[in-house]
Amino acid sequence: MTAPQTDVASARARLLELIKERAIVHGRVTLSSGKEADYYVDLRRISLDGEAAPLVGIVMRDLTQDLDYSAVGGLTLGADPVATSMLHAAAAAGERLDAFVVRKAGKAHGLQQRIEGPAIAGRDVLVVEDTTTTGNSPLEAVAAVREAGARPVAVATIADRATGAGERIREEAGVDYRFVYTLEDLGLA
Fold this sequence. Notes:
single chain, alpha/beta, two-stranded antiparallel ribbon, 6 helices, magnesium, Or_phspho_trans_dom, Orotate phosphoribosyltransferase, EC 2.4.2.10
């Protein structure tokens, strides 16, 4: 169960304001894809912010409310605070949602796990990230959770850069792709 609709609508509107105020950096930058852009959307400025992070959890849970999953996570680092925000939003709503972290490579010591957190084998999971450009990070996370025995139900992100990642995720991973904000919403298109 998610927050009442008015709470979600106000959370979504306030989160968008905060992203526009704090996370959009104008100027020439090189993206993880190697491409250059005239702006950068640094959503860690949002997902790690004391006011914005709780809103991320509310909005992302609303975006995925029709899906059935018991754990949420993705490739470190962008996914970590998003998953944690969702975990806390679920707890605030009296529900349980586990979070997990997909390492970029398995540990060479200890239990040598690639996925940290509660076990996800046999579970339906949601793969998340903060901003999606190429789709490489969520595709890597989907592959890792499948290897760990989990079933990814979808990939969800806060902001989509409209570069074809959604189509790539749907085609290569065979899962649904969802996002909260478009470049138009962010005033970047």
